[in-house]
Design goal:
With 190 residues, the chain is of the alpha+beta class. It is 27% helix and 24% strand.
Length: 190
Amino acid sequence: KDASIIIKGENAYGYLKVENGIHRLVRISPFDSNAKRHTSFTSVMVSPEIDDDIDIVIEDKDIRIDTYRASGAGGQHVNKTESAIRITHEPTGIVVQCQNDRSQHKNKATAMKMLKSRLYEFELEQKKAEEAGIEKSEIGWGHQIRSYVMQPYQQVKDTRSGEAYSNVSGILDGDIDKMLEGVLIAQSRS
């Protein structure tokens, strides 16, 4: 499953870009009658919302647009029209999708905006890697940036800052400022 959200605020991207990566959760699953520990992984990708001033050209020959029926709640309308949009940028392999609206045109406009944002971030990362003289490593399932352990003890450990936190519930409820600042400080030192 995928989810896309927009977070607005002063320096939102500057703070939240450190959340890019793999997050690991260890817990007792509420769906397991044997009450065994389960490990789950999720990949987080943070992209800036680009200004309309920044010109990113996407040629029609470089994209493939697929339409499909939206999933989820929506009443009788949801299965009648193919309003959901998936856009694949062939040269980079970047895929975005949107099914927020009943209108295919609005979903396409939102997906194109998401694609432009992802392409802008992709270009920034390539330039940064060139300047540093290193290749961008792919986010892999064996390279989690943070572990949230809820059993047998409670701890959130960030591998980049090396810091551990015991307030797991608070962090999962959104109290992440201290943790984000710790990662940003650790990254600025290196």
